[in-house]
Specification:
Elements lengths: L2 H18 L6 H15 L17 H14 L4 H7 L2
Helix pairs in contact: 1-2, 3-4
Length: about 80
């Protein structure tokens, strides 16, 4: 599997896991951890996820949520870019 395909697969997995919304809180943290582990298993480094606190309200969280909404509409590119920012 190519590096781009590996990262896309991990981001798609993250998006689908967040959408399930298993927990009252912590779904994003759980999905980011799982995506990082999957990326590593596929030979890629873990994602950086904006290098910011995504729990607190702020610009980084707003960018993350916007990227998730783009993924909801079928465009994973913003989420992949955010994950590597």
């Amino acid at each position: 599997m190519s590096a781009i395909a590996s990262e896309s697969a991990a981001i798609d997995f993250h998006h689908q896991l967040v959408a399930i919304h298993v927990f009252p809180n912590g779904n994003g943290r759980h999905a980011r951890l799982a995506a990082d582990l999957l990326a590593e298993r596929l030979g890629r480094p873990p994602f950086t996820w904006g290098r910011s606190d995504l729990v607190s309200v702020g610009d980084a969280r707003a960018a993350y949520v916007a990227a998730l909404r783009a993924a909801d509409a079928g465009n994973l590119e913003p989420l992949l870019r955010f994950a590597r920012s």
